[in-house]
């Protein structure tokens, strides 16, 4: 594939294949056109890279039955509405919009193109032709929290955060809750960078957190800048959305990998069969939409065993991440003993657990 700019489309080659009736229109002898809208560059080696790998997994699964394209570096807001509309105008029959800020633009465009199917990642608004999906990132972050507390000597982690939306807040809380099960005094210091991908800001945040006493870094931003800062100081960090080991072979303890392909293949299969329907999907470790990269050299056998136990408890349901009792950092009980926060509660999360600072 050739290089693209933010408004150009790269289209995978595909021979014609007979398709069923889709959305009331016949596309005989033509491949299903599937498009993706990415918030960052496909070369970020994080979130957008993971979505791109999912797109490639779909291409590998369906061959010439589908033809994919994507637009990268699309700003959230009005610009994304133009991009999504252009993709619908271009004849794409299934469009994945892959960031929270694309939600309202996706809904607006979907109203104008009722025969086109849309899939929005991380949002909550649906329509007859708009589905939503997301990964349970917080499950992976709980495993990371277990590792962090087991290996940290300062009892303090730094967390590079993007925006204070529920998806990010629940990750910070999951990380901290798991860490405090190991060390009840563990603290998570948070710095907000107001960006999903800004290596310079992420590097500055990482250095500030390390200067404040953190000896391990976590992040909900998409570049490997935090890992590189930890590597330079001989400390520890976690990769984001994909295995970032090559950027910090000594510092990376593990990485949360987002395997979107498992979902893309299922939804395209339904589309090809004429069985696509609007739905809400929220998958995690059990469905392997979330995986953990191999443990790095600083992970001790004790830490590895603790992390594996956390992951196993999440997968089999015996140890939910947000099982009570849970108090917020003001001391108010948010989840009672014997209860567990449901998905509706997760998507309304605008509070932090004990131990979160900043």
What gyration radius follows from the Cα positions, in whole Å?
21 Å
**Main β sheet profile:** 7 strands, mixed
The N- to C-terminal Cα distance equals: 43 Å
In round numbers, the mean pLDDT is: 93
- Which range does the strand content fall in? 15-25%
Strand order of the largest sheet: 1-5-4-6-7-8-14
Question: Which secondary-structure class do the elements indicate?
Answer: alpha/beta
What is the fold-level CATH name, i.e. the topology of the largest domain? Rossmann fold
Which second-level CATH architecture of the largest domain applies? 3-Layer(aba) Sandwich
Descriptive overview:
This protein folds into 2 domains: 10-135, Rossmann fold; 137-257 and 292-357, Response regulator (Rossmann fold), CATH 3.40.50. The chain is built from 10 helices and 18 strands. By secondary structure, it is an alpha/beta fold. Helix 2 (78-89) packs parallel to helix 3 and helix 6 (199-211) packs parallel to helix 7.
Short structural summary:
It is built from 10 helices and 18 strands. The protein is α/β, with parallel strands linked by helices and 358 residues long. 49% of the residues are buried.
């Amino acid at each position: 594939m050739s290089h693209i700019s933010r408004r150009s489309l790269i289209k995978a080659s595909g021979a014609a294949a007979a398709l069923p009736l889709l959305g009331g229109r016949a596309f005989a002898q033509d491949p299903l056109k599937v498009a993706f809208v990415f918030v960052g560059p496909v070369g970020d080696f994080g979130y957008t890279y993971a979505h791109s790998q999912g797109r490639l997994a779909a291409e590998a699964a369906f061959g010439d039955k589908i033809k994919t394209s994507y637009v990268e570096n699309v700003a959230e807001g009005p610009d994304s509405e133009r991009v999504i509309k252009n993709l619908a105008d271009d004849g794409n029959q299934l469009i994945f919009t892959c960031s929270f800020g694309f939600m309202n633009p996706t809904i607006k465009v979907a109203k104008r193109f009722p025969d086109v199917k849309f899939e929005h990642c991380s949002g909550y608004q649906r329509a007859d032709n708009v589905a939503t999906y997301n990964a349970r990132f917080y499950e992976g972050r709980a495993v990371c929290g277990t590792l962090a507390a087991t290996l940290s000597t300062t009892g303090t982690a730094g967390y590079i955060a993007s925006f204070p939306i529920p998806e990010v807040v629940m990750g910070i809380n999951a990380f901290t809750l798991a860490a405090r099960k190991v060390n009840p005094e563990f603290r998570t210091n948070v710095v907000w960078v107001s960006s999903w991908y800004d290596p310079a800001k992420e590097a500055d945040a990482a250095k500030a957190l390390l200067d404040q006493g953190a000896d391990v870094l976590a992040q909900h931003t998409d570049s490997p800048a935090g890992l590189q800062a930890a590597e330079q100081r001989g400390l520890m960090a976690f990769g984001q959305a994909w295995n970032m080991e090559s950027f910090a072979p000594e510092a990376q303890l593990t990485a949360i990998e987002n395997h979107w392909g498992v979902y893309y293949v299922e939804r395209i299969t339904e589309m090809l069969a004429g069985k696509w329907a609007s739905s809400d999907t929220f998958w995690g470790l059990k469905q392997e939409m979330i995986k953990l990269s191999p443990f790095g050299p600083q992970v001790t056998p004790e830490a590895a065993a603790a992390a594996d136990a956390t992951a196993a408890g999440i997968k089999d349901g015996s140890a939910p991440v947000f099982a009570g009792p849970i108090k917020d950092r003001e001391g108010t009980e948010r989840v009672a003993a014997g209860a567990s926060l449901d998905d509706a509660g997760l998507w309304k999360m605008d509070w932090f657990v004990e131990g979160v600072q900043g």
